[in-house]
């Protein structure tokens, strides 16, 4: 029951099992006929044992199962007489393990043009609909050994099922900040009112003449000189007061101008400090954006490298295994089972005729 259950799960239909039975029958029959031929050709038992070895070794050697026929000089031509070759090829063909490979367009191109699977890009494999080459082979291709856990690991399965990591987009630079509006100029200070001039000094009384009547005498020279000296001093004092008043007013104006200039400079320095702070904030934002993009690109590069490594390791290993088997045993994937049956039937017929000839010769002798 378990054997029958295993056969039902093998993927082969009833017709394939019938073809296998026919192949085994013809192979067994050819072996039986070789035994009869040895018995008929051997003059005694000792020679028969030697002939068994002479016949069986080529059957094993040229069957194509132990060694590829192409590595043996003349192996493909010599093996045409070995029934084991045709039985082996018929069984392989019946199993259908190479049917997907031979039907694959990519493998047809590789075999016809003597190329390597790596000569075809992944995109070309996808566009050509190749099921036994590229990432799709692990799901759609039926061929032994391509899902070997040595290279078809959990990481490889994840990489094959997931798309390639998406490269992060280059961020759009932050727009430059709107500059602060220029400060409103301070209004010019209102000039101090001009100082009220000091009143002109009251003139000194002129010296009066002395005496009366006819004895009146004009002021003396000394009095006139004293009067003039008093007037001069009075004028100098007035001029000094006016000069002091003017100097004081000028000092007030200069102080007012200095205060206005200092306020303008302070306003300009505050505006410049605001612009510098704004520029520093923009620089920090731009650097942070650049650092985030660089970090994202680094993670993307690492993820893509790991994805590519896991994926390519599995694909290249599986394709290499298929290429090796196809190069070594690709001849078993072509042709038909019936042609192999025909070859075995011819061998059986030839051996049967040879048995009759040797047996008649032995009977005659």
Describe what this molecule looks like in 3D.
With 365 residues, the chain is mainly α. It folds into 2 domains: 7-165 and 310-364, no CATH class; 170-302, no CATH class. Helix content is 65%, strand content 0%. The chain contains 12 helices and no strands. It is rod-shaped, with a radius of gyration of 60 Å.
Quick summary of this structure?
This protein is mostly helical. The protein has helices spanning 2-8, 14-41, 45-61, 75-78, 83-95, 99-103, 105-113, 122-127, 137-140, 154-161, 221-329, 337-364.
Q: Would you tell me the structural class of the helices and strands?
A: mainly alpha
Mean pLDDT: 85
Order of helices and strands: HHHHHHHHHHHH
Distance between the termini: 55 Å
Number of helices: 12
| Count of structural domains | 2
Question: Could you state the oligomeric state of the chains shown?
Answer: single chain
Q: Estimate what percentage of residues fall within beta strands.
A: under 5%
Helix content: 55-70%
Enumerate the spans where pLDDT stays under 50 for 5 or more consecutive residues: none
Question: Could you give a short account of the major beta sheet?
Answer: none
Number of DSSP-assigned strands: 0
Radius of gyration from CA coordinates: 60 Å
């Amino acid at each position: 029951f378990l054997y029958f259950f295993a056969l039902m799960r093998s993927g082969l239909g009833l017709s394939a099992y019938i073809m296998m039975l026919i192949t085994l029958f013809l192979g067994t029959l050819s072996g039986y006929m070789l035994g009869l031929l040895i018995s008929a050709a051997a003059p005694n038992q000792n020679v028969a044992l030697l002939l068994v070895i002479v016949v069986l070794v080529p059957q094993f050697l040229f069957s194509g199962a132990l060694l590829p026929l192409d590595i043996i000089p003349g192996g493909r031509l010599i093996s045409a007489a070995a029934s084991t070759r045709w039985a082996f090829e018929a069984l392989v063909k019946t199993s259908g393990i190479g049917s997907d490979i031979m039907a694959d367009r990519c493998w047809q191109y590789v075999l016809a043009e003597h190329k390597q699977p790596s000569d075809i890009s992944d995109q070309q494999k996808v566009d050509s609909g190749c099921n036994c080459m590229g990432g799709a082979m692990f799901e759609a291709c039926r061929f032994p050994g391509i899902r070997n856990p040595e290279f078809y690991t959990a990481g490889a399965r994840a990489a094959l099922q997931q798309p390639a990591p998406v490269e992060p987009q280059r961020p759009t630079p932050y727009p430059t900040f709107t500059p602060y509006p220029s400060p409103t100029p301070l209004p010019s200070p209102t000039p101090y009112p001009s100082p009220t001039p000091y009143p002109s000094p009251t003139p000194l009384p002129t010296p009066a003449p002395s005496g009366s009547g006819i004895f009146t005498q004009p002021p003396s020279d000394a009095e006139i000189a004293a009067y003039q000296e008093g007037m001069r001093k009075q004028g100098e004092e007035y001029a000094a007061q006016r000069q002091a008043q003017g100097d004081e007013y000028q000092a007030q104006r200069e102080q007012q101008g200095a205060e206005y200039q200092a306020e303008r400079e302070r306003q300009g320095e505050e505006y410049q400090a605001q612009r510098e702070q704004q520029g520093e904030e923009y620089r920090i934002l731009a650097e942070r954006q650049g650092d985030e993009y660089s970090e994202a690109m680094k993670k993307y590069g690492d993820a893509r490298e790991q994805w590519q490594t896991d994926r390519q390791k599995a694909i290249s290993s599986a394709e290499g295994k298929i290429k090796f088997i196809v190069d070594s045993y690709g001849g078993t994937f072509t042709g038909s089972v019936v042609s192999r049956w025909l070859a075995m039937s011819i061998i059986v017929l030839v051996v049967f005729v040879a048995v009759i000839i040797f047996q008649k010769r032995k009977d005659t002798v």
